Amino acid sequence: MKNKNNKTVEVLVSPFPPLVMKTDGKFAGFEIELWEMIAREIDLEYTYKEVRLKDIFAALENGQTDLAVAGISINEDREKIFDFSHYTLDSGLLVLTGKNSGRVKVLKTIKEFFKSGYKKILTTLLAILILVFILGNAIWLIEGRSGGAFSSAYFPGIFEAAWMVLVTISTVGYGDYIPHLWIGKLFDVFIILIGYIFFGIFIAELSSIITLKKIRGNISSYKDLGGKKVATVRHSTSINTLDRLGAKIVAVEKIENAFKKLKNEKVEAIVFDAPNLLHHMSSGETRFFDVIGDIFERQTYGIAMPTGSPLKEKINLAILKLRDNGSYDILYKKWFGENSKME
Q1: I need a labelling partner for 332 at 20 to 30 A (CA). Which of 76, 109, 112, 130 fits?
Q2: CATH superfamily, with its number, for domain 219-294
Q3: pLDDT tens, 300-335?
Q4: End-to-end CA separation in angstroms for the chain
Q5: Which pLDDT score is estimated for 207?
């Protein structure tokens, strides 16, 4: 059967492994095989036309094609501008990171540490130096001017006093200088107490920076993507999800470009449709990438058609028949196995 204009139906396709793939000029994949089963059921003649994903949407919205098979996610916004068949696959999004992305890289860690925390570090160090200078002058006035532990001359007496203050407040010890006078020893108790306070603040600042870097450097689920550089395909449903999660989105035209960026550490993760990422992992890329967490943002795919398409009801009836007679299950197991992570 042909469409109402008595012409062969045009089917727009865009590569989306393993749903739509092109090998030696021929199209294959889960959704391609499903469509061909549907076409046989309703005795429909068709031709494939390969275009970019964004061009598929424009053609459907303007009624310039008959239908599209390209792993197209069904959502409310898209259903406002074109129609969908019953769902062809139930899936969602996955997170992919580089293999051993949590491994400590010393030089990079040091660089990032000082890049993000140097202002706090410098401010705290400056405060300690000012404190050492003030306390050094005070203890020199007590000990140096009264024949105590330090030289009576301001130079080098102030350096001797500052050294004693520094090693005292850092809890290293007294080194070469110990207060001789009782008032100097009493003042030294004050120095020790001040040292505990200021060095406690300093250590706390360093710990907070290190902890923050550790948290920012790890991705254990999609909830950790906030502030991370994450690659995904332009015009895909992943864009809105990543924007909501607060990720730094790096949009690419093809998913292959995202894999290259992750492999070269240009991004920290990839978020995209589970079938595509799982297929890529099954093709030998496990040595480079890790799947993180489970599928999230559950979504379904469908065959897209212009609004009011006369083909919609026929296609839906064919899908229901293929599910009822077990043909769909056989096809699903062929492409995704008995225990697919998507179900």
Answers
A1: 76
A2: Periplasmic binding protein-like II (3.40.190.10)
A3: 999 999 999 999 999 999 999 999 999 999 999 888
A4: 34
A5: 66
φ/ψ of 296, rounded to 5, equals -130, 170
Contact between 225 and 218 (Cβ < 8 Å): no
Beta strands in the chain (DSSP E): 9-13, 21-23, 26-28, 46-50, 67-73, 83-84, 89-98, 229-233, 248-252, 269-273, 289-305
Please write the tens of the pLDDT for every residue from 276-294: 888 887 766 667 888 888 8
Pairing type for strands 269-273 and 229-233 reads parallel
- DSSP strand E in 75-228: where? 83-84, 89-98
Map out the domains of the chain as residue ranges.
Answer: 9-90+300-336, 106-217, 219-294
pTM over 0.85: no
Task: Find the length of the chain.
Answer: 343
Q: What is the pLDDT of residues 48-78, one digit of tens each?
A: 999 998 899 999 999 999 999 999 999 888 9
Vertex 167: Cα angle to 165 and 173 (nearest 5): 120
User: Is the predicted pLDDT of residue 230 greater than 70, yes or no?
Assistant: yes
| CA dihedral for 37, 321, 326, 329, sign (positive or negative) | positive
Per the model's pLDDT, the better-predicted residue between 121 and 62 turns out to be 62
How far is residue 44 from each of residues 4, 11, 257, 311, 321, measured CA to CA in Å?
12, 11, 36, 10, 16
CATH class entry, domain 106-217? mainly alpha
What fold does the segment set 9-90+300-336 form as a domain? D-Maltodextrin-Binding Protein; domain 2 (3.40.190)
